[in-house]
Amino acid sequence: MTLRSLLVAALAALAIASPVPNPDIEVNSLESRQSDTSNDLENGDCKPVSFIFARGSTETGNMGFIVGPGVCSGLKSRLGADNVACQGVGGAYTAGLIPNFLPENTNQASIDAAVDMFNLALQCPDTQIVAGGYSQGSAVISGAVQDLSDEERARVNGVVLFGFTRNLQDGGRIPGYPQDQTKVYCAIGDLVCSGTLIITPAHLTYGLNAGSAATFLAGLVSV
């Protein structure tokens, strides 16, 4: 079964089990149209806010399809589409499965690819940087934030992590980065957040948290 078919099955099960609307769920036409690829920073598009996202293993594009596009469009709806640049982490980060088994739950080349995107954002002198990652992408973003210099890290206003593969190892935070600027989403039943690499349906439901994450990040910037 593919990751996409697992997602459909998980969301169907969730809909049956939870018929009452959840305030964290944000579904609108803009989010449904958002692409799985976004290269605003690579295209030289400096905006007041730059959102950098690393997708999960085997996801398509450079933003993925489970949660990244929803957070991007959620930020645009809250802050104005003309105020937000969205950039996925691609290049050496191919979102393959094998790097999950390494000590950092990803490889250095993938972390370096994310650092490159932060460096692009830092070339926009007035932009406010926010970031996010899902599954292996959460380890990629966490590692990249840690690899920034103190001065560069201070330019990062907030980070959201979904299905954080280093949640247990790092105590639910990014080492060396302010905890009050970090929001970690770990669904009930997501064993990845408990220090394993076992994928359950819960690990595929973080699109439901896209609106909440966008609200959190929007509250850490000003436009």
TrEMBL record:
<dbReference type="InterPro" id="IPR029058">
    <property type="entry name" value="AB_hydrolase_fold"/>
</dbReference>
<dbReference type="InterPro" id="IPR043580">
    <property type="entry name" value="CUTINASE_1"/>
</dbReference>
<keyword id="KW-0964">Secreted</keyword>
<keyword id="KW-0719">Serine esterase</keyword>
<dbReference type="Pfam" id="PF01083">
    <property type="entry name" value="Cutinase"/>
</dbReference>
<keyword id="KW-1015">Disulfide bond</keyword>
<feature type="signal peptide">
    <location>
        <begin position="1"/>
        <end position="17"/>
    </location>
</feature>
<keyword id="KW-0378">Hydrolase</keyword>
<comment type="similarity">
    <text>Belongs to the cutinase family.</text>
</comment>
<keyword id="KW-0732">Signal</keyword>
<dbReference type="InterPro" id="IPR000675">
    <property type="entry name" value="Cutinase/axe"/>
</dbReference>
<dbReference type="InterPro" id="IPR011150">
    <property type="entry name" value="Cutinase_monf"/>
</dbReference>
<dbReference type="InterPro" id="IPR043579">
    <property type="entry name" value="CUTINASE_2"/>
</dbReference>
<protein>
    <recommendedName>
        <fullName>Cutinase</fullName>
        <ecNumber>3.1.1.74</ecNumber>
    </recommendedName>
</protein>
<comment type="function">
    <text>Catalyzes the hydrolysis of complex carboxylic polyesters found in the cell wall of plants. Degrades cutin, a macromolecule that forms the structure of the plant cuticle.</text>
</comment>
